[in-house]
């Protein structure tokens, strides 16, 4: 009897070991197998009580999020409103300064204190080619033991587009966006965060060139590289051509939260190297534009959007993308 008991105990132990074996490793375009294994081990250690299926979803999401990071070589640029033709055609922007004296150009925007053109020098970094997907944000909330937002409406057929898996994730607060990026960083052991305002603009302008629209050619073509004007809702991420660095949806569909506090006079006092915005404030900055705006006026690379970091609901059109704060390529 003791022998049979010990044999059963050994078999149970072996079976438990098999059940607890490493998660199925997803393929990665940028990470070595050892790095993927290390992420899997962190997911296992962080979420021992979640089902295997959820843990594998988390692992796949973290790996895919890192694969989506575009390395952006740093450099120096003039940040802010660099001017445009007083009468211009957004589908045929030409090359700045359009054969004119830059001093004689008109402002691109007339609001939000972006008119102080100032030099900025950035270290290299990574920025996600896509905004965060709705289903990835749902998975994050589930991992934190939080209910899905508006869960009581999830089964309504008339709201299916609102909860579609691949639309830009709507967030109620700036902190939720930041927490999601930090979550990716915790599980990957990389320094993942929201981008700074300067990093967002540098990337949108193809490493700081004088580009007004973050598209494949610097022009707007409704329905090809941006939503049609008066589009009534967001569309799945990556539907339109990316900008010259391979970044999608920086001209419309949904805005991106960035890390910075908003300061009216910050551009005039911004440090040269890697500015991160004022130390404190009451509003955070959103960049880009969203589906309900007029494209040629709003989908511009230099526009700043100060906003309350806490909203009263999860509204489509307010989203984010994460950055990897490392000057070394993955």
Automatic annotation (TrEMBL):
<dbReference type="InterPro" id="IPR042095">
    <property type="entry name" value="SUMF_sf"/>
</dbReference>
<dbReference type="InterPro" id="IPR051043">
    <property type="entry name" value="Sulfatase_Mod_Factor_Kinase"/>
</dbReference>
<dbReference type="InterPro" id="IPR005532">
    <property type="entry name" value="SUMF_dom"/>
</dbReference>
<dbReference type="InterPro" id="IPR016187">
    <property type="entry name" value="CTDL_fold"/>
</dbReference>
<dbReference type="GO" id="GO:0120147">
    <property type="term" value="F:formylglycine-generating oxidase activity"/>
</dbReference>
<dbReference type="Pfam" id="PF03781">
    <property type="entry name" value="FGE-sulfatase"/>
</dbReference>
<keyword id="KW-0732">Signal</keyword>
<feature type="domain" description="Sulfatase-modifying factor enzyme-like">
    <location>
        <begin position="66"/>
        <end position="303"/>
    </location>
</feature>
<protein>
    <recommendedName>
        <fullName>Sulfatase-modifying factor enzyme-like domain-containing protein</fullName>
    </recommendedName>
</protein>
<feature type="signal peptide">
    <location>
        <begin position="1"/>
        <end position="20"/>
    </location>
</feature>
């Amino acid at each position: 009897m003791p022998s049979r008991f010990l044999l059963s105990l050994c078999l149970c132990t072996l079976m438990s070991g098999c059940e607890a074996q490493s998660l199925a490793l997803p393929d990665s375009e940028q990470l070595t197998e050892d790095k993927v294994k290390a992420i899997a081990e962190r997911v296992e250690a962080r979420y021992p009580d979640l089902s295997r299926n959820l843990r594998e979803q988390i692992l796949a999401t973290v790996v895919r999020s890192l694969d989506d990071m575009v390395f952006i070589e740093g450099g120096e640029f003039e940040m802010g409103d660099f001017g445009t033709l007083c009468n211009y055609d957004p589908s045929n922007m030409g090359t700045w300064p359009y054969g004119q004296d830059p001093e004689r150009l008109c402002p691109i925007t007339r609001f939000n204190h972006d008119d102080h053109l100032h030099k900025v020098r950035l270290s290299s970094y990574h920025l996600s080619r896509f905004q965060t997907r709705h289903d990835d944000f749902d998975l994050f909330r589930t991992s934190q033991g939080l209910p899905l937002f508006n869960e009581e409406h999830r089964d309504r057929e008339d709201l299916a587009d609102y909860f579609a898996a691949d639309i830009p994730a709507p967030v109620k607060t700036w902190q939720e966006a930041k927490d999601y990026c930090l979550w990716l960083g915790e599980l990957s052991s990389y320094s993942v965060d929201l981008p700074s305002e300067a990093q967002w603009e540098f990337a949108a302008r193809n490493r700081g060139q004088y580009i007004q629209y973050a598209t494949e050619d610097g022009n707007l073509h409704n329905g090809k590289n941006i939503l049609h004007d008066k589009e009534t809702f967001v569309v799945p991420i990556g539907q339109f051509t990316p900008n010259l660095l391979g970044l999608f949806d920086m001209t419309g569909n949904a805005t991106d939260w960035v890390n910075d506090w908003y300061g009216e006079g910050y551009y005039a006092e911004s440090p040269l190297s890697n500015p991160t915005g004022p130390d404190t404030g009451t509003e955070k900055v959103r960049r880009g534009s969203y589906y309900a705006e007029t494209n040629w006026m709003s989908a511009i690379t230099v526009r700043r959007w100060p906003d309350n970091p806490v909203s009263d609901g999860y509204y489509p059109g307010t989203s984010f993308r994460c950055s990897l704060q490392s000057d070394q390529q993955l």
